[in-house]
Amino acid sequence: MERINPPALSPPTGFSHAVTATGSRLVFLAGQTALDSGGAVVGDTLPEQFEQALANLLEALRATGGAPSDLARVTVYTTDVPAYRAHARELGAIWRRRARRDYPAMAVIGVVRLWDEQAMVELDGIAALP
Questions:
Q1: 84 C-beta neighbours (distance < 10 Å), count
Q2: DSSP tag of 7
Q3: Nearest-angstrom CA–CA distance, 110 and 119
Q4: Are 9 and 105 in contact (CB under 8 A)?
Q5: What does DSSP assign to residue 102?
Q6: Who contacts 74 (Cβ-Cβ below 8 Å, separation ≥6)?
Q7: Rg of the chain over CA atoms, in angstroms?
Q8: Backbone angles phi, psi at 38, to 5 degrees
Q9: pTM recorded for the entire structure
Q10: pLDDT digit string (tens) for the chain, length 130 residues
């Protein structure tokens, strides 16, 4: 994969403007919230839920034989965009600890609610495995 960040665009922070992928297998990752293995939402704060949702997304990716560096696109859905922005530095640290600095193309989208009413954040993604 190649991450492309044109100098004519503002410098990306925690994402890539474009990602080209030439993998032999595409993996479409379903939306993951902060569910534990028993199906209960865990975490009382957005950062706690983000960490669990990211862990779940990466676990699904690992089950396909993929790694965080294989992520080409991730979409983040949140019920509280101002809180997401307020915690951006902390969320970035969680991302770097779990997925390193090979940032995929990303978007953050505000939503009224998620499937599980207690969920504050959901992540889905697309990966290209070599």
A1: 19
A2: T
A3: 13
A4: no
A5: -
A6: 57, 104, 105, 106, 123, 124, 125
A7: 14
A8: -90, 0
A9: 0.91
A10: 899 999 999 999 999 999 998 868 999 999 999 999 999 999 999 999 999 999 999 999 999 999 999 999 999 999 999 999 999 999 999 999 999 998 999 999 999 999 999 999 999 999 999 8
Contact of 29 with 67, CB cutoff 8 Å: no
Tell me how crowded residue 55 is: count the other CB atoms within 10 A of its CB: 15
Strand ranges of the sheet holding 71-78, from the earlier edge strand across to the other edge:
25-32, 121-129, 71-78, 105-110
Amino acid at 55: A
Distance separating alpha carbons of residues 69 and 31, to the nearest angstrom: 18
Is the CA virtual torsion 42, 44, 46, 47 positive or negative? negative
- Tokens describing residue 82: 């101002």
Q: Is 28 helix (H, G, I), strand (E, B) or coil?
A: strand
- Give CA torsion, residues 64, 68, 71, 75, to 10 deg: 110
Q: Report the C-alpha gap between 94 and 36 in whole angstroms.
A: 18
Asked if 27 contacts 57 with a C-beta cutoff of 8 angstroms, the reply is no
